[in-house]
Amino acid sequence: MVNNEQIRILFDRICRDEEMQAYKALYSLLCSRLIHFSASIVYSYHLAEEIVSDVFVMLWQKRRQLQHVRNPLVYLYVSTKNLSLNSLQQQKKHQHATLDMLDVNALSILPDAEHNLISAEVSLKIEQAICSLPARCQLIFRLVKLDGLKYNEVATLLEISSKTVDAQLAIAVKKITQAIRLDLSTDQVNAYYKIGQ
């Protein structure tokens, strides 16, 4: 899970001190997650890599103007979403691009089984249960439980209410728990994603 305080410190060092080492560290920390997020929108890892690269280039170019940003993680996700949707609209001039057209396979990032003290087999079963969720529900679950965004941050990013985030997350947890109930206890699933903490 991404550490918001670490991201904020790195972002501040980039904006305030123009520190290239902090820039590289922030890129390394968030690159994979942002690429997966972008790829779920544009259906292309190659294009998603370009988009995330563009997001970080813009961050460096505008670093002095971004000192006021209070939540760098949300800022970077929103920037990635906007560039992804713009790119998709440029590719499909006549088709309206929205987050409802997600490629849910691109969202898939297996949590580190060793870090969570859970077997690779169990980790795979949980991932399969997550992949069976509807696209929007799956995205919300991943942003909250895997990327560590708060409900209000996800609501801002996806332009929905916090209550919708809460409802979708409850649906996701219930479906995942039901899907793997034969193999895992609810406590194991909750411990795996640190639900309720």
Q: Your description of this structure?
A:
One of its GO terms (molecular function) is DNA binding. Residues 32-93 form the RNA polymerase sigma-70 region domain. With 197 residues, the protein is mainly alpha-helical. It has two domains: 4-98, Rna Polymerase Sigma Factor, Chain: A (Orthogonal Bundle); 108-193, Arc Repressor Mutant, subunit A (Orthogonal Bundle). It has ten helices and no strands. α7 crosses α9. The longest helix has 23 residues, at 20-42. The chain is globular.
Number of spatially distinct domains: 2
Kindly report the average pLDDT value: 80
CATH hierarchy, class of the largest domain: Mainly Alpha
What's the total number of strands? 0
Q: Structural class, from secondary structure content?
A: mainly alpha
Strand content: under 5%
Radius of gyration: 17 Å
CATH architecture of the largest domain: Orthogonal Bundle
Please summarize the sheet with the most strands.
none
Order of helices and strands: HHHHHHHHHH
DSSP helix count? 10
Distance between the termini: 13 Å
What is the CATH topology classification name of the largest domain?
Rna Polymerase Sigma Factor, Chain: A
Which overall shape is indicated by the principal axes computed on the Cα atoms? globular
In the predicted model, the low-confidence regions spanning at least 5 consecutive residues are 109-117
Helix content: 55-70%
